[in-house]
Amino acid sequence: MSVAKPIVISCGEPAGIGPEIAYQAWxxxxxxxxxxxxxxxxxxxxxxxxxxxxxPSEAADATAMPVLAHDFGSENIAGxxxxxxxxxxxxxxxxxxxxxxxxxxRAICTAPIHKAALIDGANFAYPGHTEYLAALAEVNxxxxxxxxxxxxxxxxxxxxxLANVPTALTASLLTDTLxxxxxxxxxxxxxxxxxxxxxxxxxxxxxxxxxxxxxIEMITPVLDALRAQGMNISGPLxxxxxxxxxxxxxxxxxxxxxxxxxxxxxxxxxxxxxxxxTLGLPFVRTSPDHGTAFDIAGQGIADATSMIAAIRMADTMxxxxx
Length: 322
What we know:
The protein has 322 residues and is of the alpha/beta class. It folds into two domains: 191 residues, Isopropylmalate Dehydrogenase (3-Layer(aba) Sandwich), CATH 3.40.718.10; 120 residues, Isopropylmalate Dehydrogenase. 35% of the residues lie in helices and 17% in strands. It contains ten helices and twelve strands. Strands 3-4-2-1-5-12-11-6-7-10-8-9 form a twelve-stranded mixed beta sheet, sandwiched between helices. Strand 8, helix 7 and strand 9 form a beta-alpha-beta unit. The longest helix has 17 residues. It starts with 6 loop residues before the first strand and ends with a helix.
C-alpha cells in the first residue's frame, strides 16, 4: 500500500458541474497527483470509472477514481438542486477538512456549492464555503485570494455592497489582510520576501486628498506601519495602472480594496485558469473560480480547466508547506 497522501475533493453541489469536472481532473491528473473524491458515486458522470475506498491511504493505489462514498439518499437531476442533498454536501466538506487536519490528506479542493439549497435543506448558517471552513478550523479571520500563473489578487472587502465599502474598510481589517497575505506568500508560495502592491480605494489613489481621504487618513498609515516592520509594500497605488504587464512584474500579489477592483483584472487576464485560495487556514484549500453552472450540468461540456488548476495549485502549496 502506498503512503502518498491525496488531495481530497469535496463533491460540492451534485446537480452542478462539480462531479463532472472532478472526474475530468482525475482523468488528467490522477496518475500523477493522488486524489480522493468525497461524495455519492451515483452522482459522477455516467460510465465513470471509479473505485470505492474506505480510507485516504488507499487513494494512491487505486486503479480508478478513488471515492469515499456517501449515500445522499435521493435522486440527483443535473441542473436542479435538491435540498435533500444539503446534509451530504456539508458532510463531505467536513470529512475532507477532518482528513487534512489529521494529516491523512495534504490539501482540500472544494467543488462549487449552492448556498440556497444548503440553507433550504440544512439551515446552513454560513455565507459560503470560506466561512464554513474557517469555522471548522476555528480561525477568526481568513483571506480570499484569486490566483493564476498571470496574477494573484486579494480583495480586502469581499461581498460588500460598494456603498458600504468605505465603512467596512478599517485599519484593523487592512492590517490583518496584509499580514495574512504576507505570511501565506512565504509559507504557501515559497516567496521569502513577498512584494505586495496595494491599491488605493479612490480614483488615482485619492489624488492627494482631492478625490477622497481614505488613502491619507487610513491606508497610508497602515502601509507605513507594516513597512516599518520590514514588509515590502508599495502603495497606495492607482488601481487603473496596476495590472498592465510591466506593473505586474513589480509585485507578487496585489491587494485591492473591494471585490471588483481585484477580480475584474484576473478574470480578464485568465478567466478559465483562476483559482480561489483561502489564506490563513491551518491547511491548504483551493477551489475552482466559478459556480455550479446549472445551465450546462450533465451535458458533458463543462470545462475542468479551473478545477485542474486548483488541484495543481493545491499540490504546489502543500509541497511548499512541507
